[in-house]
Amino acid sequence: MSDKSGNFQSDIHDSNYETVFLAKKLDHTGLVNADGRTQESLNGQWNFGVDWYDTCRRAKWFTETTHDAAGRPLPLDWDWEAWERMTVPACWNLEREDLHYFEGSGVYTRKFRYVPEIEGERAFLRFEGAAYRATVFLNGQLLGTHDGASTPFCAEITGIVKADNRIIVAVEAKRRADRVPMDNTDWFNYGGLYRDVILFRTPPVYIRDWFVRLVPDGTFSNIAVDVTLAGVSGVAVSGEVRFRIPGLGVDAAVPVVNGKGTTVIRAKPELWSPAAPRLYDMELSAPFCSDTVTDRIGFREISVKGTDILLNGKPVFLKGICVHEDHFEKGKTTDEKIIRSTIAHLKELHGNYLRLAHYPHDARFAKIADEEGVMLWAEVPVYWAIAFENPATYADAENQLSELVLRDRNRASVIIWSVGNENADTDARLSFMSRLAERARALDGTRPVSAACLINHEKLAIEDRLVDSLDIIGVNEYYGWYDPDFGKLPRILENSNPAKPVVLCEFGGGARIGQRGSTDELFTEDMQRRIYEKQVAVIGACRYIKGTTPWILYDFRCPRRLNRFQEHFNRKGLLDADRVTKKLAFKVMADFYEGIGD
Ligand code: GCB
After folding, report:
1. Residue 570 C-alpha to ligand 1 middle, in angstroms?
2. All residues at 6 or more sequence positions from 131 whose CB lies less than 8 Å from its CB, including other chains
3. Cβ proximity of 304 and 500 under 8 Å
4. Number of Cα atoms under 13 Å in the Cβ half of residue 25
């Protein structure tokens, strides 16, 4: 039917209603680094409507058209102020019982005041995470649409923002085969505006982003700084930015030409490490445009040599554990207290490293890990059977990876970018994931790239063509659990002769807290402990395994797990989902890591 015909009504007849919203993307190209700037929180109680049929976008509620052309009131289907309240940030699934498994669209709205502080000031909204698709409107105008549940995005609102504003965010949380992750995962699909929403301001010309790090040349005495400046209406800016690290006596010029500047400065920082997580305050200031940003940076070098992983030139064993961003009360929403208690458990394990599985965790994690001296594996949700043949899926994955790297590349704690987990070795997957590895290196040439690769369970060897594109080989194996024949693990390790370091990024087994029995009884703490004892004995004897992150620190919500011990939780945690009660295997891992020493 043509939209010219007299009985065409776009809100009910236009099946392509999303096209216009998708045409304006909020992606990594619009990301502005807001660290070290004054941030005004838009968190709090928003009005919220469950919009199961996506009518906000179909019927353009966001235009707030309340009267027809003749001035008569319209029978509206929305009613912002009468709607219930929903906490932002929060996973809607845990806010209301009837939304526990809700995977449709929800509309969030609130008002806010805005008073400019300086002449020509620019203003931005930044969303730290919205699952999965968020379409943002301000004062009736479309700002754009973001895809990806776990990475940040920004929208410039200069010229649209007024004294009194209404923001509307339509968030849609469907699982789909063409998304990243796709519709089948071993974790819960939380939805909503579940991370912070902030407003920040900049001068007309402003410092958009920076990348400060030790040059990985083995000398530990060169600091590189890249700066990006944004001009008014996209006009390229040139000028001099000062780069200062008072603690090192650094005060250097970074010449910026056409928006980009880069400089290498000689300096001898105390190196960041888990034993001494030294951070330096730094400042970038651009007097010609009156902009200044600050950050706290740790300087360290992470590299790979043969089958060794080197931290500051010395071999290091990554003593870690996997953790999901999943809290029994808050889901994927987190806070400083939760992050610090996670790290406290890692330290009780005598660990120095966490695998943040299987998607980017909250931005505060890496900041706190910087302070606490914890190394991190950061990952994008290229998980299991992604639509590797689909170019749109690749674009989504590449964008999520770009947003992650741009968000966290100034964090010393992040030492590995992972481009995926347990994906079948097809040509399409090889091309997809090796392009992702190249993308990570293009945005950040200072960190190794890894992925959880595959074992050939017939040949009993680590075998995955993706290995050629990686710096560190991640391997998941569940001998003693999914495959009870534990004897295969030592054979696999003997049969393999990798030229690169291997990290065992998963092993383990399930145990219901308090469930006791023999070491052969599934879901008992006793069997889980036995699996850990056998695993660490084999791992400890393998010359090329340079790190381990068993699966997993805490039990986590998982709709695929329906037996009487699981009750919708994956029970492979070393602690219960209460994040307090330890299982017997915890001590096995703690003793193993204590024995390895620093
Ligand atoms: C895996 C996956 C992880 C699962 C785990 C399990 O290999 O990478 O996401 O949760 O196994 O418990 O089966």
Report:
1. 9
2. 91, 149, 150, 171, 173, 189, 190, 191, 192, 194, 332
3. yes
4. 11
Distance CA 38, CA 283 (A): 14
Helices 525-540 and 585-596 cross at an angle (nearest 10°) of 20
Q: 3-class DSSP state for residue 245? A: strand
Query: Which residue pairs, CB below 8 angstroms and at least 24 apart, start in 219-222?
Result: 220/268, 220/269, 220/271, 220/299, 220/301, 220/312, 220/313, 221/266, 221/267, 221/268, 222/264, 222/265, 222/266, 222/267
Q: How many CB atoms lie within 10 A of CB 507?
A: 26
pLDDT higher than threshold 90 for residue 401: yes
Q: Are 504 and 477 in contact (CB under 8 A)?
A: yes
Say if residue 343's pLDDT is above 80: yes
Rounded CA separation 548/596 (Å): 12
Which whole number is the average pLDDT over 126-140?
A: 98
Nearest to 98 by CA among 46, 148, 52: 52
Q: Give the separation between CA 395 and CA 517, rounded to whole angstroms.
A: 49
C-alpha span between 514 and 517 (Å, rounded) = 10
Q: What is the DSSP letter of 522?
A: T
CA 336–ligand 1 middle distance (angstroms)? 26
Query: pLDDT tens digits, residue range 166-203?
Result: 999 999 999 999 999 999 999 999 999 999 999 999 99
Nearest protein Cα to ligand 1, atom 3: 186
Does residue 551 have its Cβ closer than 6 Å to ligand 1?
A: yes
User: Which tokens in the block code for residue 544?
Assistant: 């090329």
Q: What is the pLDDT of residues 281-309, one digit of tens each?
A: 999 999 999 999 999 999 999 999 999 99
d(CA 516, CA 522): 10
Q: Quote the pTM value.
A: 0.98
- What's the rounded Cα separation, in Å, for the pair 288 and 286? 6
Contact (CB, 8 A) for 343 and 570: no
pLDDT band at 4 (very low <50, low <70, confident <90, very high): low
Judge if the beta carbon of residue 186 lies within 6 A of ligand 1. Answer: yes
443 neighbors 402 (Cβ within 8 angstroms)? yes
At 424, the pLDDT band (50, 70, 90 cuts) reads very high
Token pair, residue 72, equals 């008569």
Length of the chain: 598
Q: Please state whether 270 falls in left (phi above 0), alpha (psi between -120 and 50) or beta.
A: beta
Using CB atoms within 10 A of its CB, is residue 433 exposed (0-12), middle (13-18) or buried (19+)?
Answer: buried
| Distance from residue 186's CA to the centre of ligand 1 (Å) | 6
